[in-house]
Design brief:
By secondary structure, the protein is mostly beta strands. The protein folds into two domains: 7-137, Elongation Factor Tu (Ef-tu), domain 3 (Beta Barrel); 160-235, Sandwich (Jelly Rolls), CATH 2.60.120. The protein contains one helix and 18 strands. Strands 1, 2, 3, 6, 7, 8, 9, 10, 11 and 18 form a ten-stranded antiparallel β-sheet that branches. Strand 9 and strand 10 form a beta hairpin. It is globular and about 70 Å long. It comes from Cerasibacillus quisquiliarum.
């Protein structure tokens, strides 16, 4: 691997800030959470995994093995302390960016103490991260950035709408998971989606009931003013 390759976690880069070189890494994939019930006296099995809007997934695990070198044993010990505190400081999942996965980030936390195998003038850190199941898009949907646009994974779309009465619009969720968008409305509005009416207050809001399914989401907006939707795609 490129010696300068690394991860950005807890606001610092593994190589640029600590001189850690990545020896190897493993990006684990999340497993589905299945909720099944068998019909008594039958071979029929019902799957209720998506009954609340989308398939659930287990957390995913990321492992990075770093090489740390210093010919001064005292400096090596100090660096070890500094690195351990950098990794263990967050008490919740925070952004982790991998240089080789541009355009996306993980939400991850180090829950178990990293393993440090110390040799004469160097040490090997094995760090296990517990992460949110999905990679999250670095840029919000509706951005007009051309350079990072991926023709295989991205969708060019409008997420800001001027409404004068009634307007039918479509939002696309190009991810692998349902998302709950944040909304910002200049005046109170109504959104009718899948036969359900949602009341949107003035200002910023987010509803746990209003979700965007994978793919095309058609809806009708009623009101007068401007409404904007903010969300990022989530991919496995």
């Amino acid at each position: 691997m490129n010696n300068h390759f690394g991860i950005t976690f807890n606001g610092k880069h593994s190589y640029r800030d600590f001189g850690l070189r990545v020896l190897e890494k493993h990006i684990g994939n999340p497993s589905k959470i299945k909720r099944k019930e068998r019909v008594p006296f039958s071979n029929k099995i019902y799957d209720f995994s998506s009954v609340y809007g989308g398939q659930e997934y287990e957390e995913r695990h990321l492992t990075y093995v770093f090489n740390l070198r210093d010919y001064d044993k005292v400096n090596l010990a100090i660096k070890k302390i500094e690195i351990l505190n950098w990794l263990m400081q967050p008490n919740e999942k925070v952004q982790l960016l991998d240089d080789y996965i541009p355009g996306y980030y993980f939400l991850a936390e180090v829950e178990e103490a990293p393993d440090f195998d110390e040799l004469r003038f160097r040490g090997v850190f094995t760090v296990n991260f517990t992460a949110y199941p999905f990679k999250i898009g670095e840029y919000e949907e509706g951005n007009d950035l051309w350079d990072p646009f991926n023709f295989l994974l991205d969708v060019a779309q409008i997420t800001d709408f001027e409404v004068a009465g009634t307007k039918t619009v479509t939002l696309y969720n190009p991810g692998a998971s349902v998302v709950k968008p944040k909304m910002k409305a200049s005046s109170p509005m109504e959104i009718i989606k899948d036969g359900i009416t949602y009341n949107i207050p003035v200002g910023e809001s987010q509803s746990h009931d209003f979700i965007l399914h994978q793919g095309e989401n058609k809806m009708t907006i009623k009101g007068i003013g401007k409404i904007s939707f903010y969300f990022r795609k989530e991919l496995i």
